[in-house]
Design a protein that fits this description.
With 173 residues, the chain is mostly helical. The chain contains 5 helices and no strands. The longest helix is centred in the first third of the chain and has 39 residues. The radius of gyration is 22 Å and the shape is elongated. It starts with a helix and ends in a 16-residue tail after the last helix.
């Protein structure tokens, strides 16, 4: 039982690490584009943020598809991309809703405050994105999932080293 659990925890930890690498690079892209757009245009703060979020979303899709979730089902790319865009749009609303509330609800609209609340919005939206992308967008292959469960079951069922085999236990080759 513990062998299968540790395998699942290890797999989840690797997935979170890969998601974090791509997401961290995406945060950099998001904040860099946000500050660039704010410095060279007259766009209001939330519109500049939306432009930056869209740029980061495009960057992140490539990273998630070809790095984080490269071993996941690739058969339904149109559906995958549609779901990615849908959940990214919800994340965009979450992310920019935080910035909008801080800017227009509380009047916190300095450059520093905008960056702080943009970053906070990214963090909150990232939790939603991680859950939705791994659950709905980049789905595991059914056969792979079945093999992993069977391997975990077999590793749990193996007798301890040096233990005697009982009549119910098969002989392993």
């Amino acid at each position: 039982m513990l062998g299968g659990l540790s395998t699942q925890v290890g797999r989840l930890a690797r997935e979170i690490a890969k998601f974090g690498v791509v997401g961290g690079a995406g945060v950099f892209v998001n904040l860099a584009v946000f500050n660039l757009v704010r410095s060279v245009t007259e766009l209001p703060v939330v519109r500049a943020s939306i432009v930056a979020t869209v740029a980061a979303t495009c960057f992140n899709y490539v990273g998630y598809r070809y790095f984080t979730y490269r071993d996941r089902d690739k058969q339904r790319r149109t559906k995958e991309l549609s779901l990615f865009l849908l959940f990214s749009a919800i994340g965009l609303i979450i992310e920019n809703g935080v910035l909008y509330t801080a800017t227009y609800g509380f009047g916190w609209d300095s450059s520093l405050a905008s960056n702080v609340f943009k970053f906070l919005g990214i963090g909150i939206a990232t939790l939603f994105r991680f859950w939705s992308y791994r659950t709905w967008v980049f789905r595991t292959l059914p056969a792979r999932e079945a093999v992993e469960r069977a391997e975990a079951f077999l590793s749990d069922a193996q007798p301890a080293r040096g233990a005697r085999r009982t009549a119910e236990q098969p002989i392993r080759k």
